[in-house]
Amino acid sequence: MNDKKTVFSGIQPSGKITLGNYLGAVKNWVDFQEDCRCIFCVVDEHAITVRQEPAKLRAQTFELLAQLIACGIDPEKYEDTVLYIQSHVPQHAQLSWLLNCYTMFGELSRMTQFKDKSSKYSDNINAGLFTYPVLMAADILLYKTDIVPVGIDQKQHLELARTIAQRFNGVYGDTFTVPEPFIPKAGAKIMSLSEPTKKMSKSDSNENGYILLADTPDVINRKIKRAVTDSEALVCRRDDKPGVNNLMTIYSIAAGKTDEEIVKEFEGRGYGDFKTAVAEALIEMLRPIQEKKDYLLQNKDHLEKIYTESAKKAEWLASRTLEKVYRKVGFVAKGK
Ligand code: ATP
Ligand code: LTN
User: Fold this and answer.
1) Nearest CA to ligand 1 atom 25
2) Residue 198 reports pLDDT greater than 80
């Protein structure tokens, strides 16, 4: 053990990764590897809270792993980074059951993601969708996590994970580390391009709403050209300009420019020029990621080696926490 802080985060293989996932979460994960122990997980058990087609889920899981490595999550370069698949480490489901017994029905009923998803998938409001945040708390608490980098939509789930940890510690004495969220200043919520008051989501039925990391330059150009703005033709950040604000955020991160620099750059020019620049910056940012991902997907053995070795390391860490928790609640230890 060293004294590095532990970072944990997860992403669902529920579709292809979007620019929102990248800017809100994954891009920040990459930087944490420099000086933290980093545990990143493809959360397939969370993904099945919504009905998934088996072959597609499997393909999406591989694609997501390749995509994450292409973005710079690299267990081969950073010996304190692991990248694995949630269902390969059984302790997640085991701790989740236990934590269910320390989570209140009322708390879960207040989760906005549950309310949103149960209205969106009204024909499949299953118990897993309801207890989704408990599995997420188990993911985090298994690894004594200090920091959880996520987009702002996950803040409420993080607060519940903290509540569950504190409740358990209150009853049984210090057991879990109480995690802190890390929510980026810029990019915490990238909005849909077609409805800029809604978050950009990979499960949106309108594909013009999102940019995928895998989108080709033509597709990126087309989607950005179609992005909803307003009739003012003025590039600046203001509350009543959600579409322009969103494009400014994207451009600012992709091109590494401040708001002031962007406003100056497009003074007296229309949205056409602005959108061309946004699309170009995005294409340049994504090009190396796409090339690397294509290469990795052709080498499935290499991918398998990474997620298998990582899962072993994760399981070792997770089993230590689970054993401690089982002991605290009064379960009898297994015979040797
Ligand atoms: P789904 O649409 O299937 O619910 P999702 O696109 O919300 O999926 P997740 O796998 O649930 O993606 O989220 C992975 C990470 O990406 C989380 O940390 C989440 O906060 C972040 N994230 C998701 N959408 C956005 C967004 N539009 N802007 C910023 N961060 C986002
Ligand atoms: N619920 C998250 C994904 C997720 C996660 C986690 C994020 C599952 N487990 C643990 C951070 C830590 C989502 O929907 N984005």
Assistant:
1) 20
2) yes
